[in-house]
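Figure caption, in words: inputs first, then the predicted bound structure.
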Amino acid sequence: MTKVELIFIPLAAAGHIVSAVELAKLLIDRDERLSITVIPMKFPFFSISNFTHSVPSSRIRFIDLPVDEFDPSLDIRKYFNIMVENSKHVVKETVSKLISQSSSQDQQEEDFPKLGGFVVDMVCTAMIDVANDFGVPSYIFFASGAASLGLFFYMQDLHDEQGKDLTEFENSDAELAVPGLVNPVPASALPSSFFQKDRLQLALTTIRKYRETKGIIVNTFSQLEPYTLKSLADGRIPPVYPVGPILNLKGNGQDGLNNNSIMFKETMQWLDEQPPSSVVFLCFGSMGSFDVEQVREIASALENSGHRFLWSLRKPPPQDMTESPTDYSDPRDALPDGFLDRTADVGRVIGWAPQVDVLAHPSIGGFVSHCGWNSTLESIRFGVPIAAWPIYAEQQLNAFHLVVELGLGVEIKLDYRKDQHYKPPIVNASDIERGIRSLMDRSGERIKLLNKMSKYSKEALEDGGSSYKTIGCLIEEIMDQVRRNGEFVSSC
Ligand SMILES: *[C@@H]1O[C@H](CO)[C@@H](O)[C@H](O)[C@H]1NC(C)=O
Ligand SMILES: *[C@@H]1O[C@H](CO)[C@@H](O)[C@H](O)[C@H]1NC(C)=O
Ligand SMILES: CC(=O)N[C@H]1CO[C@H](CO)[C@@H](O)[C@@H]1O
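Bound structure (2-acetamido-2-deoxy-beta-D-glucopyranose present):
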């Protein structure tokens, strides 16, 4: 039996590393020949211990590399890229050591695990060079959906093949005919990285690198994006493996980040007391927070809508969008006077939310979300409709995809955008209230469609489901590559 070792290089950020570790678990569960070493790319202030404790298998190990000081004057993405670039040599040394250690320990030649390849996070593509140094294949782990992947390749084609200046799309009302999407995509749904000259080069370099790999593992499932996946299978890019929805559904408040168990119990108890599908849940992800002026508009929208609510309200850091939000010591500091008293019977304001447990709760009837891909998949999994309020990265496209393409959500503001370079105008209470009312109206086709998708989402990873089969194919492909020493064959 040939044992095969894979090296995973995830980005240590919510939505990336958790999914990567879940993927690692799925792979080793499926094939006892596989073992995986996870080497996260992380910021100095990030603790990977939060992610290692949940891994039961001796065939997954973590290596925590030291990282350089973070220079806060740098753009966070630039810092990150420099850091990944600078980590290449130490990753190479680390992997060399692993290989030589395992060959000296094992007695029998056939027991030596062979290096099967690198599975590299969608933003850590510099590590493909290290895989190349070892002469092993690399695979991308793309933690977003097929629609984003398709858009990325389309944008790179526009730039590289058609000589288009992508920065012209900033503030433009152009619409783009992206292959694999039925509706024209408004320029306002593009990720900001395509608008800004310095970030554009980085984005293009990253996407070009995807083309050099042996496969792109995508966190989606074929029933969610059939048309997009078909269009991506045109042979112009490496094979795409839809293996999702990869979620961490363990729940019980153990979502890997700060979790206060008293708050958790109280929240779940309160939800237990609410009628089915009656509560709006508002939560904007690990980077999502709003300034006080915007918080007040949300508060009055909630009050005016009359719906029950659970609101994960987070305090913006001093340098918004470069550091994570924190919890308010007293949320009254941000809320309108008397809001908590007036809404005490119908709502709760909390800090960091145990999102999976909340979405899984039958009282939840709608989710006001930033449309991070992981949150989007969780919401579909539990059949909770989304009111889309995207903030950054590819969230505007996810929101467009969910609301316009798939008809699974409604709009709060599809072209909202906030990052280091954009300070968005305030979304007023009446717009938010309209979105919430429409979200909580369960009379139309949307809920039926969503329930169907929720069912597909559960089935995809069950024995015989579409993603289950794809994972089998992927493992076969990895094993074939090892057998043939990197010569390209596609078995699926
Ligand atoms: C998804 O995001 C939520 C909230 O940001 C986080 O609690 C959870 O761990 C993430 N799950 C995955 C699989 O990344
Ligand atoms: C809220 O904003 C919308 C634009 O998004 C505008 O049309 C509307 O008049 C505003 N409503 C109020 C009450 O300010
Ligand atoms: C659940 C868990 O292990 N949380 C830890 C995450 O990392 C921070 C920072 O190191 C710790 O303080 C938490 O205890």
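The mean pLDDT is 90.
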